[in-house]
Design brief:
CATH class: Mainly Alpha
Largest sheet: 2 strands, antiparallel
Helix content: 55-70%
Structural class: mainly alpha
Number of helices: 6
Shape: globular
Strand content: 5-15%
CATH architecture: Orthogonal Bundle
Order of helices and strands: HHHHHHEE
Mean pLDDT: 80
């Protein structure tokens, strides 16, 4: 594995960003960032490794895991197919967004 491990990246982000429920229940981009970090941690993947598996560039996945971009639907479909995951997006009337995901 090259670069930082998923656990190291997750810990670094936890140290610098308050990932409490209000952060998770924010924009779609932040909700997707939580998925990326959870998936990487669960599978002990670096950003590069997950990007390769998902068929995305490192740069695209890095921006996604920081919650700085709103993911495109085409990227969600590509990730779902490549990683064999299903997404359920919850959007409230207040505009909060959460993403649940599961593997078969």
């Amino acid at each position: 594995m090259t670069g930082r491990s998923a656990a190291e990246t997750l810990q670094r982000l936890l140290d610098t960003v308050d990932l409490d429920r209000s952060w998770k229940a924010g924009t779609f981009g932040r909700a997707f960032a939580v998925f990326v970090l959870e998936y990487r941690a669960a599978h002990q993947l670096s950003t590069s490794e997950m990007a390769t598996l998902a068929g995305l560039s490192w740069h695209t996945l890095d921006k996604a895991q920081k919650g700085t971009v709103e993911p495109r639907m085409s990227n969600l479909l590509q990730i779902a197919k490549a990683l064999h995951v299903s997404f359920v997006v919850h959007v409230s009337v207040t505009g909060d967004c959460l993403i649940d995901w599961e593997e078969p």
